[in-house]
Amino acid sequence: MPERLQLAQAECRRIARGHYENFVVGSLFLPRSIRQDFYNVYAFCRTADDLADESGSPKIALKRLNALQIDLQECFDENGTPEGILLALRDTITRHTLPSQPFFDLLDAFQQDQRVSEYMTFDSLLNYCQRSANPVGRIVLRLAGLDSPKLDQLSDSICTGLQLANFWQDVRRDLAIGRIYIPLEDRNRFGVTEADLSEPTASAKVRELIAYEVARTETFFAQGMPLAQQVPRWLARDIRLFAHGGLATLHAIGKQNYDVLRRRPKVSRWRQAQLACAALGGRLS
């Protein structure tokens, strides 16, 4: 293996292991033969996410994301010469014949975050999730050698559920950077204004709104969980771990009476450890 590729892969491992505990735990279930490929994909997703959220301004973020989009194309061009982590990503793309669309969809969603600060309808939010979350699940399925519209649909449900759970968990964080993911039609239905979301604690109507969103999000996990019964055992464990992690986030929101403004709902480390052990033992269903 060329030294440049080895260095790129090492950087992908560093990024993956240093950012997301659940990803590291989940990677324990991966076959060794494709573990590096997951690191390579995650490093790309993490890098794009950081450019979107940590660039200082939407203008700078768009400029950097546009540059990454050009660099990403190098991974798919026959004579492309990608650098850094994209060199490792290209190796994964080539060996697994991964399609380009999911990767460019992800970048499109990150770019949209710089232009769109709120969503009018739940359908428009789901459209965003189709590009911000669902591509990741489809890439994972392809890495597992699975290419089926039915499996894609089940995966989309789980990935959308995870994205929505994150939105309801991070209402205050998102508002601080000028974004509101709770659809306007839902806020209007419950009589909730932007000012209400800026309060230090959630009013009764805000809590009712969040409870409504949580209940609706639970259905996405229920719709997607049959996926775990139709994939290889190692992937089923990962799917159940992440899905139950999303449900645990929703439970944490409910446990504090849906007040996501007073403090950010979090799944305790003890609960995370319980889920990881249950997944390792094949006890998650």
Describe the structure.
- Helices cover 73% and strands 0% of the residues.
- Helix 3 (32-53) packs parallel to helix 6 and helix 6 packs across helix 7.
- The mean pLDDT is 91.
- The protein has 15 helices and no strands.
- It is an all-alpha fold and 285 residues long.
- The chain has 2 domains: 1-115, Farnesyl Diphosphate Synthase (Orthogonal Bundle); 118-285, Farnesyl Diphosphate Synthase (Orthogonal Bundle).
- The longest helix is centred in the C-terminal third of the chain and has 23 residues, at 233-255.
- The chain has helices spanning 3-19, 21-27, 32-53, 58-76, 85-96, 101-115, 122-132, 134-143, 149-169, 171-176, 184-190, 194-197, 204-224, 233-255, 269-280.
Write the layout of secondary structure elements.
Layout: H1 3-19, H2 21-27, H3 32-53, H4 58-76, H5 85-96, H6 101-115, H7 122-132, H8 134-143, H9 149-169, H10 171-176, H11 184-190, H12 194-197, H13 204-224, H14 233-255, H15 269-280
Distance between the termini: 40 Å
Low-confidence stretches: none
Q: Using the coordinates above, name the CATH class of the largest domain.
A: Mainly Alpha
Proper CATH architecture of the largest domain: Orthogonal Bundle
Quaternary class: single chain
Sheet/helix structural class: mainly alpha
Question: Topology as H/E string?
Answer: HHHHHHHHHHHHHHH
Rg measurement, Å: 19 Å
Q: Helical content, roughly?
A: over 70%
At the fold tier of CATH, the topology name of the largest domain is Farnesyl Diphosphate Synthase
The count of β-strands is 0
Number of structural units classed as domains: 2
| Main beta sheet | none
- Report the mean per-residue pLDDT as an integer: 91
CATH H-level superfamily of the largest domain: Farnesyl Diphosphate Synthase
Number of helices: 15
Which percent range describes the beta-strand content? under 5%
GO molecular function: geranylgeranyl diphosphate synthase activity; squalene synthase [NAD(P)H] activity
Protein name: All-trans-phytoene synthase
Pfam family, one: SQS_PSY
